[in-house]
Design a protein that fits this description.
380 residues; alpha/beta; Spo0b-associated Gtp-binding Protein, Chain: A; Rossmann fold; 2 domains; six-stranded mixed sheet; five-stranded mixed sheet; 6 helices; binds guanosine-5'-diphosphate; binds magnesium ion
Protein backbone atom coordinates (compact mmCIF):
# COMPACT_ATOMS: atom_id res chain seq x y z
CA UNK A 1 0.00 0.00 0.00
CA UNK A 2 1.21 3.53 -0.74
CA UNK A 3 1.16 5.46 2.48
CA UNK A 4 2.26 8.83 1.25
CA UNK A 5 1.02 10.57 -1.80
CA UNK A 6 2.84 13.64 -2.93
CA UNK A 7 0.10 15.87 -4.19
CA UNK A 8 1.93 19.08 -4.85
CA UNK A 9 5.01 20.96 -3.94
CA UNK A 10 4.65 24.64 -3.40
CA UNK A 11 7.66 26.90 -3.66
CA UNK A 12 8.92 28.97 -0.78
CA UNK A 13 8.03 32.63 -0.83
CA UNK A 14 4.27 32.81 -0.61
CA UNK A 15 4.16 33.43 3.06
CA UNK A 16 6.37 36.19 4.37
CA UNK A 17 7.55 36.17 7.98
CA UNK A 18 10.43 38.63 7.70
CA UNK A 19 11.43 41.61 5.62
CA UNK A 20 14.60 43.67 5.23
CA UNK A 21 14.07 47.31 4.45
CA UNK A 22 16.33 50.22 3.65
CA UNK A 23 15.34 53.30 5.67
CA UNK A 24 16.74 56.81 5.55
CA UNK A 25 15.74 59.94 7.42
CA UNK A 26 15.36 63.19 5.49
CA UNK A 27 18.44 65.45 5.22
CA UNK A 28 18.42 68.70 7.13
CA UNK A 29 18.03 72.04 5.37
CA UNK A 30 20.83 74.60 4.91
CA UNK A 31 21.22 77.40 7.42
CA UNK A 32 21.46 81.02 6.29
CA UNK A 33 24.85 82.47 7.41
CA UNK A 34 24.03 86.07 6.53
CA UNK A 35 21.04 86.25 8.91
CA UNK A 36 21.87 83.39 11.30
CA UNK A 37 18.95 81.32 9.94
CA UNK A 38 18.49 77.66 10.85
CA UNK A 39 17.68 74.96 8.29
CA UNK A 40 14.72 72.64 8.96
CA UNK A 41 15.33 69.20 10.48
CA UNK A 42 14.86 66.28 8.12
CA UNK A 43 11.84 64.00 8.73
CA UNK A 44 12.16 60.74 10.72
CA UNK A 45 11.20 57.24 9.61
CA UNK A 46 8.87 55.30 11.92
CA UNK A 47 7.53 51.77 11.86
CA UNK A 48 3.89 51.77 12.98
CA UNK A 49 1.70 48.74 13.76
CA UNK A 50 -1.63 48.38 11.99
CA UNK A 51 -3.83 45.28 12.17
CA UNK A 52 -4.89 44.94 8.53
CA UNK A 53 -1.34 44.86 7.19
CA UNK A 54 0.69 41.72 6.52
CA UNK A 55 4.37 41.49 5.62
CA UNK A 56 3.36 39.95 2.29
CA UNK A 57 1.20 42.99 1.46
CA UNK A 58 4.11 45.29 2.35
CA UNK A 59 6.47 43.33 0.15
CA UNK A 60 4.07 43.44 -2.78
CA UNK A 61 3.31 47.14 -2.36
CA UNK A 62 6.93 48.26 -1.97
CA UNK A 63 9.07 45.90 -4.04
CA UNK A 64 12.02 48.32 -3.73
CA UNK A 65 11.77 48.10 0.07
CA UNK A 66 13.14 51.64 0.45
CA UNK A 67 11.67 54.28 2.73
CA UNK A 68 12.95 57.85 2.95
CA UNK A 69 11.53 60.73 4.95
CA UNK A 70 11.16 64.28 3.63
CA UNK A 71 14.05 66.77 3.60
CA UNK A 72 14.10 69.83 5.87
CA UNK A 73 13.66 73.16 4.09
CA UNK A 74 16.58 75.55 3.71
CA UNK A 75 16.52 78.68 5.79
CA UNK A 76 15.53 81.68 3.71
CA UNK A 77 14.90 85.36 4.18
CA UNK A 78 11.15 84.65 4.25
CA UNK A 79 11.48 81.76 6.70
CA UNK A 80 14.65 81.98 8.75
CA UNK A 81 13.75 78.78 10.54
CA UNK A 82 13.36 76.25 7.73
CA UNK A 83 10.36 73.91 7.86
CA UNK A 84 10.82 70.39 9.21
CA UNK A 85 10.79 67.56 6.66
CA UNK A 86 7.81 65.21 6.63
CA UNK A 87 8.03 62.00 8.67
CA UNK A 88 7.65 58.69 6.86
CA UNK A 89 5.51 55.97 8.45
CA UNK A 90 5.97 52.34 7.48
CA UNK A 91 2.86 50.34 8.36
CA UNK A 92 3.50 46.80 9.62
CA UNK A 93 1.35 44.18 11.34
CA UNK A 94 1.50 43.89 15.15
CA UNK A 95 3.63 41.09 16.61
CA UNK A 96 6.84 42.32 14.98
CA UNK A 97 10.38 42.64 16.31
CA UNK A 98 12.49 45.33 14.68
CA UNK A 99 16.27 44.86 14.55
CA UNK A 100 19.13 46.47 12.65
CA UNK A 101 21.07 44.40 10.17
CA UNK A 102 23.46 43.22 12.88
CA UNK A 103 20.62 41.79 14.90
CA UNK A 104 20.55 44.59 17.50
CA UNK A 105 17.01 45.11 18.78
CA UNK A 106 15.48 48.47 17.93
CA UNK A 107 12.03 47.79 19.35
CA UNK A 108 8.88 45.71 19.32
CA UNK A 109 5.45 46.38 17.92
CA UNK A 110 2.85 44.46 19.88
CA UNK A 111 -0.38 46.41 19.54
CA UNK A 112 -2.12 48.50 16.94
CA UNK A 113 -0.61 51.99 16.98
CA UNK A 114 2.74 51.01 18.59
CA UNK A 115 5.62 52.86 16.90
CA UNK A 116 9.39 52.55 16.70
CA UNK A 117 11.78 55.19 15.37
CA UNK A 118 14.09 53.53 12.84
CA UNK A 119 15.91 56.41 11.11
CA UNK A 120 16.39 59.96 12.36
CA UNK A 121 16.29 62.93 10.06
CA UNK A 122 19.42 65.12 9.89
CA UNK A 123 19.57 68.36 11.85
CA UNK A 124 19.27 71.56 9.86
CA UNK A 125 22.35 73.78 9.43
CA UNK A 126 22.83 76.43 12.11
CA UNK A 127 25.47 78.68 13.59
CA UNK A 128 27.00 75.70 15.49
CA UNK A 129 27.48 73.61 12.36
CA UNK A 130 28.75 76.41 10.17
CA UNK A 131 25.21 76.49 8.71
CA UNK A 132 25.73 73.08 7.08
CA UNK A 133 23.07 70.45 7.63
CA UNK A 134 23.81 67.11 9.34
CA UNK A 135 23.44 63.89 7.39
CA UNK A 136 20.39 61.79 8.12
CA UNK A 137 20.53 58.30 9.59
CA UNK A 138 20.40 55.51 7.03
CA UNK A 139 20.40 51.79 7.60
CA UNK A 140 18.96 48.42 6.87
CA UNK A 141 16.33 47.22 9.29
CA UNK A 142 14.74 43.84 9.63
CA UNK A 143 11.13 43.15 10.57
CA UNK A 144 10.49 39.70 11.99
CA UNK A 145 7.09 38.27 12.73
CA UNK A 146 7.44 36.76 16.18
CA UNK A 147 6.71 33.08 15.85
CA UNK A 148 5.27 30.97 18.63
CA UNK A 149 6.46 27.71 17.05
CA UNK A 150 7.85 26.24 13.84
CA UNK A 151 4.76 24.14 13.23
CA UNK A 152 1.13 24.81 14.09
CA UNK A 153 -1.48 22.05 14.38
CA UNK A 154 -4.75 23.06 12.76
CA UNK A 155 -7.80 20.89 13.22
CA UNK A 156 -11.29 20.65 14.62
CA UNK A 157 -11.76 19.42 18.18
CA UNK A 158 -11.23 15.67 18.61
CA UNK A 159 -9.15 15.27 15.44
CA UNK A 160 -6.31 14.12 17.68
CA UNK A 161 -4.06 17.19 17.82
CA UNK A 162 -3.18 16.78 21.48
CA UNK A 163 -2.57 13.06 20.98
CA UNK A 164 -0.33 13.83 18.03
CA UNK A 165 1.63 16.40 20.02
CA UNK A 166 2.22 13.77 22.69
CA UNK A 167 3.32 11.22 20.10
CA UNK A 168 5.74 13.70 18.51
CA UNK A 169 7.16 15.38 21.55
CA UNK A 170 7.59 15.28 25.28
CA UNK A 171 4.63 17.55 25.89
CA UNK A 172 1.81 16.18 28.01
CA UNK A 173 -1.28 17.98 26.79
CA UNK A 174 -4.73 17.23 28.08
CA UNK A 175 -6.42 14.58 25.97
CA UNK A 176 -10.14 13.98 26.19
CA UNK A 177 -12.95 12.91 23.96
CA UNK A 178 -14.90 16.14 24.18
CA UNK A 179 -14.49 19.44 22.37
CA UNK A 180 -12.45 22.47 23.47
CA UNK A 181 -9.94 20.65 25.61
CA UNK A 182 -7.08 22.86 24.60
CA UNK A 183 -7.77 26.46 25.45
CA UNK A 184 -4.36 27.97 24.89
CA UNK A 185 -1.46 26.91 22.69
CA UNK A 186 0.48 24.02 24.07
CA UNK A 187 4.02 23.91 22.72
CA UNK A 188 5.92 20.66 22.39
CA UNK A 189 9.47 20.07 21.24
CA UNK A 190 10.35 17.39 18.73
CA UNK A 191 13.88 16.10 19.30
CA UNK A 192 16.09 14.62 16.59
CA UNK A 193 19.12 12.37 16.87
CA UNK A 194 21.47 15.19 15.84
CA UNK A 195 20.03 17.35 18.67
CA UNK A 196 18.08 19.58 16.33
CA UNK A 197 14.76 20.62 17.87
CA UNK A 198 11.53 21.69 16.24
CA UNK A 199 8.69 23.29 18.15
CA UNK A 200 5.09 22.30 17.51
CA UNK A 201 2.09 24.24 18.80
CA UNK A 202 -1.23 22.58 19.47
CA UNK A 203 -3.54 25.54 19.00
CA UNK A 204 -6.92 26.12 20.67
CA UNK A 205 -9.74 24.29 18.91
CA UNK A 206 -10.89 25.71 15.64
CA UNK A 207 -14.60 25.48 14.94
CA UNK A 208 -16.87 26.52 12.10
CA UNK A 209 -17.37 30.27 12.35
CA UNK A 210 -13.99 30.93 13.97
CA UNK A 211 -13.37 33.79 11.57
CA UNK A 212 -16.42 35.51 13.08
CA UNK A 213 -14.74 35.02 16.44
CA UNK A 214 -16.95 32.10 17.39
CA UNK A 215 -15.46 29.81 20.03
CA UNK A 216 -11.85 30.79 20.53
CA UNK A 217 -11.93 32.07 16.95
CA UNK A 218 -9.63 35.02 16.57
CA UNK A 219 -7.27 34.03 19.32
CA UNK A 220 -6.77 30.75 17.52
CA UNK A 221 -6.32 32.30 14.11
CA UNK A 222 -3.85 34.86 15.43
CA UNK A 223 -1.64 31.99 16.59
CA UNK A 224 -1.89 30.26 13.23
CA UNK A 225 -0.23 33.33 11.71
CA UNK A 226 2.75 32.90 13.96
CA UNK A 227 4.05 29.56 12.79
CA UNK A 228 6.21 28.73 9.79
CA UNK A 229 4.27 25.74 8.54
CA UNK A 230 0.92 24.14 9.26
CA UNK A 231 -0.10 20.57 9.91
CA UNK A 232 -3.78 20.16 9.17
CA UNK A 233 -5.02 17.30 11.33
CA UNK A 234 -8.23 15.48 10.41
CA UNK A 235 -9.95 12.35 11.69
CA UNK A 236 -10.05 9.93 8.76
CA UNK A 237 -13.61 9.01 9.76
CA UNK A 238 -14.79 12.63 9.84
CA UNK A 239 -16.44 14.31 12.79
CA UNK A 240 -19.56 15.80 14.28
CA UNK A 241 -19.04 18.77 16.55
CA UNK A 242 -22.40 18.48 18.30
CA UNK A 243 -25.58 16.46 17.86
CA UNK A 244 -27.26 19.49 16.25
CA UNK A 245 -24.55 20.06 13.67
CA UNK A 246 -24.14 17.92 10.55
CA UNK A 247 -21.63 15.11 10.23
CA UNK A 248 -18.54 16.13 8.25
CA UNK A 249 -16.27 13.78 6.32
CA UNK A 250 -12.47 14.18 6.41
CA UNK A 251 -12.60 15.95 3.05
CA UNK A 252 -15.25 18.34 4.29
CA UNK A 253 -13.16 18.99 7.39
CA UNK A 254 -10.23 20.00 5.17
CA UNK A 255 -12.50 22.34 3.20
CA UNK A 256 -14.00 23.88 6.33
CA UNK A 257 -10.60 24.43 7.92
CA UNK A 258 -9.37 26.08 4.72
CA UNK A 259 -12.48 28.27 4.61
CA UNK A 260 -12.01 29.48 8.18
CA UNK A 261 -8.38 30.41 7.46
CA UNK A 262 -9.33 32.06 4.19
CA UNK A 263 -12.07 34.17 5.74
CA UNK A 264 -9.70 35.38 8.44
CA UNK A 265 -6.73 36.12 6.17
CA UNK A 266 -6.43 34.67 2.71
CA UNK A 267 -2.68 34.74 2.96
CA UNK A 268 -2.76 31.99 5.58
CA UNK A 269 -3.60 29.52 2.82
CA UNK A 270 -0.20 30.26 1.27
CA UNK A 271 1.63 28.88 4.26
CA UNK A 272 3.34 25.58 3.55
CA UNK A 273 0.94 22.91 4.75
CA UNK A 274 0.91 19.17 5.29
CA UNK A 275 -2.24 17.12 5.76
CA UNK A 276 -2.12 14.58 8.56
CA UNK A 277 -4.88 12.00 8.37
CA UNK A 278 -5.27 10.59 11.86
CA UNK A 279 -6.94 7.54 13.43
CA UNK A 280 -5.79 5.14 10.71
CA UNK A 281 -6.18 2.33 13.25
CA UNK A 282 -9.99 2.56 13.06
CA UNK A 283 -11.94 0.01 10.98
CA UNK A 284 -12.48 1.05 7.34
CA UNK A 285 -9.82 3.75 7.59
CA UNK A 286 -7.90 2.72 4.49
CA UNK A 287 -10.93 2.85 2.26
CA UNK A 288 -11.80 6.30 3.62
CA UNK A 289 -8.22 7.48 3.07
CA UNK A 290 -8.36 6.44 -0.59
CA UNK A 291 -11.63 8.30 -0.99
CA UNK A 292 -10.15 11.41 0.67
CA UNK A 293 -7.11 11.34 -1.60
CA UNK A 294 -9.32 11.13 -4.68
CA UNK A 295 -11.35 14.09 -3.50
CA UNK A 296 -8.21 16.11 -2.83
CA UNK A 297 -6.98 15.56 -6.38
CA UNK A 298 -10.01 17.38 -7.84
CA UNK A 299 -11.64 19.25 -4.96
CA UNK A 300 -13.82 21.37 -7.25
CA UNK A 301 -15.72 18.24 -8.33
CA UNK A 302 -16.73 17.62 -4.75
CA UNK A 303 -17.56 21.17 -3.74
CA UNK A 304 -21.31 20.38 -3.86
CA UNK A 305 -20.88 18.40 -0.63
CA UNK A 306 -20.87 21.61 1.38
CA UNK A 307 -23.09 24.71 1.27
CA UNK A 308 -21.66 27.21 -1.20
CA UNK A 309 -20.54 29.72 1.41
CA UNK A 310 -18.46 27.07 3.14
CA UNK A 311 -16.37 26.16 0.11
CA UNK A 312 -13.00 27.92 0.04
CA UNK A 313 -12.19 30.06 -3.02
CA UNK A 314 -8.78 28.47 -3.22
CA UNK A 315 -7.88 25.02 -2.02
CA UNK A 316 -4.86 24.49 0.13
CA UNK A 317 -2.20 22.66 -1.85
CA UNK A 318 -0.68 20.19 0.58
CA UNK A 319 2.97 19.37 0.25
CA UNK A 320 2.24 15.91 1.54
CA UNK A 321 -0.60 13.79 2.84
CA UNK A 322 0.55 11.60 5.70
CA UNK A 323 -1.69 8.96 7.28
CA UNK A 324 -0.95 8.27 10.94
CA UNK A 325 -2.34 6.89 14.12
CA UNK A 326 -1.45 9.01 17.10
CA UNK A 327 -2.55 6.14 19.32
CA UNK A 328 -0.61 3.22 17.79
CA UNK A 329 2.30 5.36 16.55
CA UNK A 330 1.81 4.37 12.93
CA UNK A 331 3.38 6.93 10.54
CA UNK A 332 4.78 9.09 13.35
CA UNK A 333 8.45 8.47 12.52
CA UNK A 334 7.83 9.33 8.91
CA UNK A 335 5.95 12.49 9.89
CA UNK A 336 8.82 13.55 12.15
CA UNK A 337 11.33 13.09 9.35
CA UNK A 338 9.14 14.88 6.87
CA UNK A 339 8.51 18.04 8.90
CA UNK A 340 12.23 18.33 9.57
CA UNK A 341 13.01 18.04 5.88
CA UNK A 342 10.30 20.50 4.92
CA UNK A 343 11.51 23.16 7.39
CA UNK A 344 15.15 22.64 6.36
CA UNK A 345 14.23 23.06 2.70
CA UNK A 346 12.44 26.33 3.35
CA UNK A 347 15.25 27.62 5.53
CA UNK A 348 17.81 27.03 2.81
CA UNK A 349 15.60 28.66 0.18
CA UNK A 350 15.15 31.66 2.48
CA UNK A 351 18.92 31.93 2.96
CA UNK A 352 19.43 31.76 -0.80
CA UNK A 353 16.97 34.55 -1.39
CA UNK A 354 18.65 36.69 1.30
CA UNK A 355 22.00 36.20 -0.40
CA UNK A 356 20.47 37.15 -3.72
CA UNK A 357 19.10 40.34 -2.15
CA UNK A 358 22.46 41.25 -0.66
CA UNK A 359 24.29 40.56 -3.89
CA UNK A 360 21.89 42.74 -5.82
CA UNK A 361 22.38 45.54 -3.31
CA UNK A 362 26.18 45.22 -3.56
CA UNK A 363 25.91 45.61 -7.29
CA UNK A 364 24.60 49.05 -6.52
CA UNK A 365 20.97 48.55 -7.41
CA UNK A 366 19.63 49.91 -4.18
CA UNK A 367 21.57 52.42 -2.06
CA UNK A 368 21.66 55.98 -3.33
CA UNK A 369 24.56 58.42 -2.94
CA UNK A 370 25.33 59.71 0.54
CA UNK A 371 23.83 56.63 2.15
CA UNK A 372 25.51 53.66 3.64
CA UNK A 373 25.96 50.43 1.79
CA UNK A 374 23.65 47.54 2.65
CA UNK A 375 24.71 45.69 5.72
CA UNK A 376 26.87 48.36 7.30
CA UNK A 377 26.19 49.83 10.71
CA UNK A 378 24.08 52.91 11.26
CA UNK A 379 25.47 56.39 11.39
CA UNK A 380 23.95 59.79 11.90
N1 LIG B 1 -8.61 5.39 17.55
C1 LIG B 1 -7.90 6.49 17.67
N2 LIG B 1 -8.29 7.46 18.52
C2 LIG B 1 -7.53 8.57 18.64
C3 LIG B 1 -6.36 8.76 17.86
N3 LIG B 1 -5.83 9.97 18.17
C4 LIG B 1 -6.64 10.50 19.10
N4 LIG B 1 -7.67 9.68 19.39
C5 LIG B 1 -8.75 9.90 20.35
O1 LIG B 1 -9.54 10.98 19.91
C6 LIG B 1 -9.98 11.77 21.03
C7 LIG B 1 -9.57 13.20 20.85
O2 LIG B 1 -8.16 13.31 20.87
P1 LIG B 1 -7.40 14.64 21.24
O3 LIG B 1 -5.95 14.37 21.03
O4 LIG B 1 -7.82 15.16 22.57
O5 LIG B 1 -7.96 15.60 20.09
P2 LIG B 1 -7.86 17.20 19.93
O6 LIG B 1 -9.15 17.75 20.41
O7 LIG B 1 -7.70 17.43 18.46
O8 LIG B 1 -6.69 17.65 20.73
C8 LIG B 1 -9.38 11.10 22.26
O9 LIG B 1 -10.33 10.26 22.81
C9 LIG B 1 -8.23 10.32 21.71
O10 LIG B 1 -7.92 9.20 22.50
C10 LIG B 1 -5.96 7.70 16.95
O11 LIG B 1 -4.96 7.77 16.24
N5 LIG B 1 -6.78 6.62 16.91
MG1 LIG C 1 -6.67 18.99 22.24
Amino acid sequence: MVWISRICYRKYGNFVDNLRLYVRGGSGGMGLPRLGGQGGKGGDVWVVAQKEITLKKMKDKYPQKRFTAGVGANSSVQALRGQKGEDQEILTPPGITVTDDNGKALGELNHEGDRVLVARGGLGGSYHSGFLPKKAQARIIRLDLRLIADIGLVGFPNAGKSSLLTALSHAKPQIASYAFTTLRPEIGTVMYDDHKQISVADLPGLIEGAHMNRGMGHQFLKHVERTKQLLFVVDVCGFQLASKTPFRSAFEAVQLLSKELELYKEELLCKPAVLVVNKMDLPGAEHKLTELQEQLQTPQEFSHLLPEDMVPKNNVVFRHVIPISAVTGLGITHLKTYIRQSLDEDASLATESLHRDKLQALRGVVPAKNTLAWGSSPSV
